[in-house]
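Appendix B. One record, verbatim.
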Amino acid sequence: MNTAELVEAVRRVSLVLEREAALRFTFTAEGLTLEAIGSEHAQASESIDAHLVGDDTTVSLKPQFLLDGIGAVHSEFVRISFTKTENPNKPGPVLITSQSSREQAGADSYKYLLQPNLLLR
């Protein structure tokens, strides 16, 4: 994903969240959709372009922790990788690394590991 687009989308959508709430990230072949439900009157959703390799994935992440990790990526693109766990209801850690181009991974000199929240169904 484009780093700047992701940062701006996270900032905009997270405006409706309460202090410790998480954003829902849905990765599909069509791209990334961010969803926030702050209250019954405050909801936000936005989609950005993303290239997905693998199965569709939905994770819930705290926006400030994600922004902290992405803020240290000094490349035009960022890669978010997922780890599998034995329990499908408990997502594994998310790995954030730099991406030198849309298709090519960057140097692995920076890695940021983020633990997702449990998804509320």
